Amino acid sequence: MEQPAEGTIKIDRLQPGKPQGLVVVITGNGKGKTTSAMGMVLRACGHGLKSCVIQFMKGDLYSGEWDGVKRLGELVELHATGKGFCGIRGNPYSREEHRANAQAAIGLAREKLLSGGFDLVILDEINNAVRHRLVDLEQLLDLLAVRPERVHLVLTGRNAAEEVIERADTVSEVNEIKHAYRRQIEPQPGIDY
Amino acid sequence: MEQPAEGTIKIDRLQPGKPQGLVVVITGNGKGKTTSAMGMVLRACGHGLKSCVIQFMKGDLYSGEWDGVKRLGELVELHATGKGFCGIRGNPYSREEHRANAQAAIGLAREKLLSGGFDLVILDEINNAVRHRLVDLEQLLDLLAVRPERVHLVLTGRNAAEEVIERADTVSEVNEIKHAYRRQIEPQPGIDY
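^ Those are the sequences you sent over. The predicted structure of the assembly is below.
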């Protein structure tokens, strides 16, 4: 990376007086929720922080971040545990299979959150999984309750529950103003997956 | 990364019949615009695509993505050309200095966009730079007009111009529902910078 030439600009480095784990929720119907979570992983790596990503609904469709995070090396663990979007047309798995999968994933999430091995834990599409009752809201609220204070927890997916939003520190809603697929433009690698 | 066990799930790989560069705008006042752009960089890397990031307003304050992208290797170029947010309290540079900087950055953006060397070009905080007239709207519209069809162009920052939104394929607005800083929680590395 090219930084400003020495002497032309002073680069400040923030350092919080009180390091504190945050609960971040990224919800809404627009493009950029998982993507934003992946950006946090990249940024965390720059600070030498360790991230664990658990993808709840994804796993049946290749996405670039699977290989992208490999380039980040030992600082990131990614588990694509899902069987695709439950209820979406063409998805061949039963509700019971989706639920069993999501239940294993929430167990894994709890284990990783409490392991002491990560600074940042991302539960990708967890809001969707709760909405479709693949995970019980109580299970997610339990994770929020037991989260070690120093660990950041990022929860993505549309339709975040009110109870989750209440307990979060930072909540963004990503709204769709326009999306290429509405003009029959196919999903493009690097941008859409 | 841990993928589903062989045989339990079939992993599909999308492949667009017509690869097409998209113009993506990420605007709004919420957390997750630059972050989302960084996620696209990570994802693009997974597909073996080359990205160039030019940061317009940033450069005076260390951000984790600067070192994060180094881990991605030769697939990413990042230029933090800014002198911080123009007009923000405490920023020591004059409007003229900010404008000269942004003008150099837009020249660089044009060069990189037309170079043939990148699949994805990200102009981080360009919308803000246009809003503050550090870059003329016409200069940005010119980039949109000359963009090679196969190159993705991602434009971030609040207050995206209507003319830019009109010309984009995908536009997301990230709205703040809550932000930790409003409760006097300091910015945290990995999440906020």
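Residues 25 and 171 of chain B are 5 Å apart (CA to CA). The helical segments of chain B are 33-46, 65-71, 95-114, 126-131, 137-146, 162-167.

Shout if you want it in another format.
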